[in-house]
Amino acid sequence: LGRAGRLNEAEDLLRTIQSDIIGWRSLLTACRTYGNVELGRRCFDQVIQLDPNHAAGYVLMSNIYANACMWKDAYKIEKLRKCAGASKKSGRAWIEVDNKVHEFILGDKCDPQSDEISAKLRH
C-alpha cells in the first residue's frame, strides 16, 4: 500500500493488525517518498515507541523534515537520536585496485593508499 501511495490505508491496516516496527518503518519510508510529513511523524512516533534506539527511524524522519525544508525540526530529530544513543552506521565502499580490495569507511583515512585511490576516483 505504501509503495502505491495509499498511505492512509496503510496506516489503518498497521493499526488494525498492531504492526511491529518493520511495518511502521516501511510506512515511514513511504512517507519520505511521498513527502507526507504529518503521517511520517505518526509513524516515527510508533517506531520510537517500539524501539527508541532504532537509528533508521530518526534518520528517515529527519530526512522527511529536511525535504520539507523544516530545518529546525530535522535538527531536533537528530538531537533526539544522539540523546537516545541511536547511532548510524558509517557509509562503506569497496574498490579493487591491482587485485587488492580496499575498504573505505566514511571519514576514515586508515588505508595507507587512501589519498592516492581517492585522487584516482576524482579523475
Describe the structure.
This protein is mostly helical and 123 residues long. It has helices at 7-17, 21-34, 37-50, 55-67, 71-84, 114-122; strands at residues 92-97, 100-105. It has a two-stranded antiparallel sheet with strand order 1-2. Strand 1 and strand 2 (100-105) form a beta hairpin. Helix 1 packs antiparallel against helix 2, helix 2 packs antiparallel against helix 3 and helix 3 packs antiparallel against helix 4 (55-67). The model has no long low-confidence stretch (mean pLDDT 85).
In short:
The protein is mainly alpha-helical and 123 residues long.
Largest sheet: 2 strands, antiparallel
The averaged pLDDT comes out at: 85
Q: What is the H-and-E element order?
A: HHHHHEEH
Number of helices: 6
How large is the radius of gyration? 19 Å
Biggest sheet strand order reads: 1-2
Helix content: 55-70%
How does the overall form come out from the CA principal axes? elongated
Span between N and C termini?
A: 43 Å
Secondary structure class reads mainly alpha
The poorly predicted ranges are none
Identify the notable features of this structure and list them briefly.
mainly alpha; 61% helix; elongated; 123 residues; single chain; 2 strands; 6 helices; two-stranded antiparallel sheet
Draw up the topology in text.
Elements: H1 7-17, H2 21-34, H3 37-50, H4 55-67, H5 71-84, E1 92-97, E2 100-105, H6 114-122
Antiparallel strand pairs: 1-2
Helix pairs in contact: 1-2, 2-3, 2-4, 3-4, 4-5
